[in-house]
Design brief:
Strand order of the largest sheet: 1-4-7-8-9-11-13-14
Helix content: 25-40%
Strand content: 15-25%
Oligomer: single chain
Number of strands: 18
Distance between the termini: 16 Å
Amino acid sequence: MLLRSFHLAGFECATGINRHGAWIDQITATQHDRFMVEDYQRLRALGISGAREGVRWPLIDQAGRYDFSTLTPFIQAAQGCRLDIIWDLFHYGYPADLDPFTTAFAEHFAGYCYAVARHIRQHSEGPWYFTPVNEPSYFSWAAGEVGRFAPHRLGQGRQLKAALIRAAILGIQAIRSACPGARIVNVDPICRVVPPLGRADLEPGAWHFNHHAVFEAWDMLCGRLQPELGGSRDLLDIIGINYYWNNQWEIGREETALSRLDPRRVPLHQLVKQVWDRYGGELLITETSHSGAARAAWVESIGGEIAALAGLGIPLGGVCWYPVLGMPEWHAREQWARMGLWDLHRRGSTLVRVPCQEMIAAFLRLQQRSVMRADTPVVERLEARR
């Protein structure tokens, strides 16, 4: 296993300015900053020993001066609870005085990455894992193509993606300089589109998206595409794949997922195989979940995909259930996404963690199968359950 446990949990950590011009901070909104120790203890009680966690760039970086007061408590809590953490350094939000389209942005980001990696190395035991830029493909579309996040540009998604990869490459180099031996987890969604029935004219566009566009960020990082950015396979390191129920859709109906019964839908293990065939190396599923009453069935379906990948000999290093806590929607703050192992219900000034019993039961069944299938000594399997 890449991390201490095969199953991981992800705490939603998006920051930034949403489509309405409002500041969002999901760590504060879910009160994870208040209850991080209790949240980590809940994971340990379920046998989860690894997590994705956010480093909030806009809070830490004050015009090039670094304030780690919002980060250090998470480092200490993770150490105390014996959790491996994948530290997410740029999850949509960036300092307001920066322009992500400029080379100065990438250079400033590298300085921030160096400072954070050095701080984490100095205050925690290894191994160390970092995600420099979360979901460059999604963010370049959301912030550069359709204006849903700052910088709220339209029609500039391709330019923003290249700028983000330039920043990621400099960030990776800075992380490795500050923290030798650090592993890099480059996270992006795997998506698939199909043409509407009767629209054969759209098949070439769908084919190009499925075989080229969806891989652009990883291709840039490894130097296959726009090699002038400085990419290499070594920089790509561990590939993190994000996949939700709505990652497959019909062209022109981007907000509507293909039905699970739609024969045009492709199983996740086949999509992961495409990634593996293209790049090789180590893989993680870094985000996956469903919402509401569909959560338990989704866990069961992911269990089938894990087994299928094992049957294909593809070395999947783990699965991260993300988000592990319910959260307010990015652009509709009064609405709550019920997607995690725990829903959040307000009791006075406190957001109480309420277990989704069906999902937890399904997860424990899957975890037991995963642990017993692992090719590890009995003592290690028992340790993974503690």
